[in-house]
Specification:
homodimer; 164 residues; Arc Repressor Mutant, subunit A; DNA-binding
Chain lengths: 164, 164
DNA sequence: ATACCTGCAAACAATTTGCACAAAC
DNA sequence: GTTTGTGCAAATTGTTTGCAGGTAT
């Protein structure tokens, strides 16, 4: 009981599954599944590291075909983020950026070298929260937790990033 | 041993002590203690909640006397932040902002109602880190942890913030 | 005296908005 | 056919930079 089991094992988000899940959520939520939005989704799904809105917009230009306008890109990011399909990473490798995520209480472990992100649940902060609540008389309601380190691949290759 | 003791108890940063400490650090570090910088320091010390660069610049105008230029404000913030005298808060009450802090490994508990910030050490993440390292083969080197909740004052006054 | 610091104003970067037109249900 | 989404371009907002002159040590 000192080491709670994680409900799901730490893992990268599967891009294909993620896209399907988002499309499903859009349908159910009454959001229209349009070409521009799908393009955004597809380009996001290809990232292996945190990305910025700016970068996404630029990359969409390069992916051939018509690229969605800035407004659409920003608005789609907004949807995805507020619904929990994207999480924000602060510090670490991607100094600040979005990563694909799944709705719910999840945290992220980021490789500071290549930007690979592993999602995990089970943050085991209960004792800390209880102690702080007692010491400070706060009613603690939430938290932000992100871990940084170097993934196996990046550690083996002394300094060659493993992401492309 | 299941509940490690915090090296120092959770507490607000004392504005006076903070200002003195920063001045000392500036001296020792060879940074000049100038009027504009002192004004910035003083205005920051008065905040009881996370603040933004923008807000600081505006407030400096109102504090009477000559206010430092934008460049000075931003450059001073940069110094203070990189030396650990300011920490960044993400999410919670101050959607994003700086708070006075002390150099070293510290985390923050933020009141989502009034923005009061409590600093604490002893994040008790060792077990979690060990588990994740084993499961993911990452070498985990650092983390970001911030907690959000409502302070005693804000909880008592159903919805009246306790900060001014 | 001589670094270092400051203010200004312009450059830059990032994000938001209004609105006419187009597409989805 | 109505509602929702899109693209554009301009407006905002936030931050950085170059440089001539000023100031702390």
């Amino acid at each position: 009981m000192t080491t709670p089991e994680a409900p799901t094992p730490p893992a990268r988000v599967n891009p294909e599954a993620w896209m399907q899940a988002v499309r499903g959520a859009w349908r159910v939520g009454g959001l229209r599944v349009t070409e521009p939005r799908l393009r955004v989704l597809q380009t996001i799904a290809r990232y292996g590291a945190p990305f910025s809105a700016e970068q996404l917009y630029d990359d969409l230009s390069r992916d051939g075909g018509e690229r969605p306008g800035r407004a659409t890109v920003y608005r789609t990011l907004e949807h995805l983020h507020s619904a929990g399909w994207l999480a924000r990473i602060h510090g670490g490798a991607g100094e600040a950026g979005y990563v694909t995520s799944l709705p719910g209480h999840v945290h992220h472990l980021v490789c500071t070298s290549c930007g690979t992100v592993i999602a995990f649940a089970g943050c085991a902060l209960d004792e800390l929260v209880a102690r702080l609540a007692a010491q400070t008389d706060f009613a603690i309601e939430g938290h932000l937790l992100q871990l940084y380190g170097r993934c196996a691949t990046c550690r083996k290759a002394r300094s060659h990033p493993c992401a492309d």
